[in-house]
């Protein structure tokens, strides 16, 4: 049976600045990575050198047959010291936007993807007095370079940011971040909600722009008798962030696996097939996440799948996962859910927040020469995009 996607559907791939650019020396995470006793095993370093090689990366996206590219602007580069905006960095990101237009690609621009300037964290971060106002000022500084951009993600995965803040405050570490994290630091969550709304107010003056944020959908499922516990887990860790999007121009769905909640919390199915991140191989998570999001935000808010993929060293497994995920996405769309595009995570094998081991990329990157090598899964995905069919 052939599955057909609508004309105008966005087919793309995604990256984030810190994970691919390299030498993000003014960011808070760079400071963490390069501390005398770092809490992460590996450094980002030169990353994929996409700060210099972005034209090559855009050529790859175009040549594969994709029509969209999601990337992020790095706040720490644009404002390396408080109140001092770098015109050169603004021009750099504008060139990337224009590079997308020149290649017929729709840019999906993220304004904040996990990292902040080191000075922002030192000043108290999101919950400090004036924290939200500082983010508003940063967003305002970007307005001149966002001309013509239709899709803008304000903040990437605010629920993960708030949960990580709670985890660090408690001095905890959880390897399986998909489900075993504590509830979010609510003060941080509230500040991020305020920052998102401030950003949307600033972006509202740009003609044609659609703004929203992206949520890490954890596809919570209840074990027998644990329906109440699951609802509580879902509300604090996901649903309160989805509900914020009820009046937004779109909501970004980011799904990788499911989390099964038992009476005592998350259950780890030891016998389940696992990915390189230790998460369950569960491509059906995308359909579940899209359906759950649509129920929370309502049918008037379009959905954009801003991340979906698998960490695997077996490229055939990437095709298997993506084919199943897209089949489920098509079922949800056939039932009337308004999904405007699918952006695969990730374009490149990149720095995964402390480790280079999980390889999510459609394209491998030589760590010494930065040579890009297109994987068979990328060519398969490109053919799906060109034809609009599975």
TrEMBL record:
Pfam families reported for this sequence: Glyco_hydro_1 (PF00232)
Signal peptide (from-to): none
Classification via InterPro entries: GH (IPR017853), Glyco_hydro_1 (IPR001360)
A GO CC annotation given for this chain: cytosol
GO biological process: carbohydrate catabolic process
GO molecular function: beta-glucosidase activity
Superkingdom field: Bacteria
Keywords: Glycosidase, Hydrolase
Family named by the database record: Belongs to the glycosyl hydrolase 1 family.
Listed name of the protein: Beta-glucosidase
Native species: Saccharothrix carnea
């Amino acid at each position: 049976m052939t599955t057909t996607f609508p004309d105008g559907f966005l087919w793309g791939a995604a990256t984030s600045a810190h994970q691919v650019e390299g030498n993000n020396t003014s960011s808070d995470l760079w400071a963490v990575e390069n501390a005398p006793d770092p809490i992460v095993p590996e450094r980002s370093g030169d990353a994929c050198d996409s700060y210099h090689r972005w034209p090559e990366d855009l050529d790859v996206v175009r040549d594969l047959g994709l029509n969209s590219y999601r990337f992020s602007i790095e706040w720490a580069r644009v404002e390396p010291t408080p109140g001092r905006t770098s015109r050169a960095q603004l021009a750099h990101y504008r060139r990337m936007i224009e590079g997308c237009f020149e290649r017929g690609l729709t840019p999906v621009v993220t304004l904040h993807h996990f990292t902040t300037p080191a000075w922002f964290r030192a000043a108290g971060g999101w919950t400090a007095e004036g924290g939200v106002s500082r983010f508003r000022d940063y967003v305002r500084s970007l307005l001149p370079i966002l001309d013509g951009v239709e899709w803008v993600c304000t903040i990437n995965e605010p629920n993960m940011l708030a949960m990580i803040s709670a985890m660090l405050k408690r001095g905890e570490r959880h390897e399986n971040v998909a489900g075993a994290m504590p509830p979010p630091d609510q003060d941080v969550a509230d500040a991020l909600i305020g920052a998102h709304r401030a950003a949307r107010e600033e972006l509202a003056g740009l003609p044609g722009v659609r703004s929203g944020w992206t949520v890490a959908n954890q596809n919570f499922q209840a074990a027998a008798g644990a329906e109440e516990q699951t609802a509580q887990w879902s509300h604090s860790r996901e649903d309160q962030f989805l509900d914020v999007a009820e009046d937004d121009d779109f909501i970004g769905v980011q799904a990788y696996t499911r989390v099964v909640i038992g009476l005592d919390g998350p259950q780890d199915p030891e016998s389940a097939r696992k990915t390189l991140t230790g998460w369950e191989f569960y491509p059906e998570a995308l359909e579940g996440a899209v359906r759950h999001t649509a129920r929370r935000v309502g049918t008037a808010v379009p959905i954009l799948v801003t991340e979906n993929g698998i960490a695997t060293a077996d490229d055939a497994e990437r095709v298997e996962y993506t084919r199943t995920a897209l089949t489920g996405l098509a079922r949800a769309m056939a039932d009337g859910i308004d999904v405007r595009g699918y952006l695969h995570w990730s374009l490149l094998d990149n720095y995964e927040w402390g480790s280079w081991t999980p390889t999510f990329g459609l394209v491998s990157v030589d760590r010494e020469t930065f040579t890009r090598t297109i994987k068979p899964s990328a060519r398969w995905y490109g053919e799906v995009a060109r034809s609009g069919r599975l």
